[in-house]
């Protein structure tokens, strides 16, 4: 990680002697049947969404996932800060995402682009079914760290910025000096090649090749960070390497968000104590998270683009022409339903069992200028003497003023009307408009109840 304290000549022999190495894959943990069932259910849901998606939607959803992975892999290292809002804005290429990257600091955009290119390298290897080799892992490191010129090292002379060798194994120890004065030991320089060879041999065993992708990804990631073969960037390489197995299985990268860093490091620390299940579970959870993200991105892709809807609203508002009839009718139906629902809900809250409320079509004919909805509400008290109070309302669309307040809700017999803009009711009824409707209905109910009260008092 970028905030590790590395040593060069400080007690190197002591630190080297503490290196324990990574386990063989046969010693790694397993998934329970419930774990496997959960993974398969989420994977099945994702597959169903993919079958219903267009090629463009599939490409877009995959792009969101890989960009999210690329953003936060650098943030986990402490190369820059990231929160969930920042990550998703960059991932979906939301408004001013380039500027947001620039605001995180000098060189952040270059780091993100290098990390994105590395994940594309992983995807290309999976697509072409290329084997994982030491040369490929070194190329991955070179791609990920391309913009990074130096890394921070604690030497006998204090902190120094040293040149970062890219695509090459470390030539100096990178053990970590902990705050309590002890060391977290990584592979000694002279053991890196043999340990990387051993890792590749484990990957090629039949048990590994047939294992669940969660076990493959978590094992390779853990083994690589135990070795720490590079001077810096090991975490980034490990996450990209783990993504290889998720890509092979479900065409998804491994996404670990920056705010998950404490849980991530804790799981790795437990693995250092030979407790492998926490890191396995962590990787399963992240794989499920990523499948759900892609699945929900596909679902979002099936809904109208809000930018296009907003543009359509602006066109309609600015237009001097009549709205399409089907859109006008749909708006009228939504308005009728909202008013009716409010009448029934508010009447129900009054707790007046002696009164009944009936609704029906308006009988007063075609309101001016053009009716797109009309309803009648009747309060009736059945006990003699029978008392009745009614209100009728109509919904009108003014064809001759589409750019101003084209819709009106008018109660017959009083001047209490609502004038509406197109954006109040299209493509959805806005929360503010629903609030106005609720108040309008309350006023109509008050008038009706006052009418009944007056009738009762006059008998």
Write the layout of secondary structure elements.
Blueprint: H1 12-17, H2 33-52, H3 55-76, H4 84-91, H5 97-103, H6 108-127, H7 134-144, E1 150-155, E2 158-163, E3 176-177, E4 183-184, H8 192-203, H9 206-209, H10 213-227, H11 234-250, H12 261-272, H13 277-301, H14 306-318, H15 325-348, E5 355-361, E6 371-381, E7 387-397, E8 407-411, E9 417-420, H16 422-425, H17 431-458
Antiparallel strand pairs: 1-2, 3-4, 5-6, 6-7, 7-8, 8-9
Structure report:
The protein has 459 residues and is α+β, with helices and mostly antiparallel strands. It folds into two domains: 12-301, Fic-like fold, CATH 1.10.3290; 312-458. It contains 17 helices and nine strands. It has a five-stranded antiparallel beta sheet with strand order 5-6-7-8-9. Strand 3 (176-177) and strand 4 (183-184) form a beta hairpin. Helix 3 (55-76) runs antiparallel to helix 4 (84-91) and helix 7 (134-144) packs across helix 11. The longest helix has 28 residues, at 431-458. It is elongated. Residues 1-5 and 365-369 have low confidence and may be disordered.
